[in-house]
Amino acid sequence: MRVFCDGQTVADHERVWAWHQTITDAEHRQAANMLRRNRIGALRPVRESEAQISVEQRTLSDYDAALGIDLGEDGFAS
């Protein structure tokens, strides 16, 4: 079996007539395994110690002041 793309041969394999068979080229399997390993590594979560992500934290009173909310001594908005 030959497969062509833009006039060039891109695949040239012997035809297998057996039913329910999956034939995989050894080079294709090796490439698929490498891609699978790389993908799994990319999906693993990064530990916080490795990432060193810093997020600013504010008190709720900062947000109250930004929104013009005045809380009385009892903690309720007036």
From TrEMBL:
- Domain Transposase for insertion sequence element IS21-like C-terminal per the UniProt entry, residue ranges: 1-25
Q: What is this protein called?
A: Transposase for insertion sequence element IS21-like C-terminal domain-containing protein
Q: Report the source organism.
A: Mycobacterium sherrisii
Database matches in Pfam families: Mu-transpos_C_2 (PF22483)
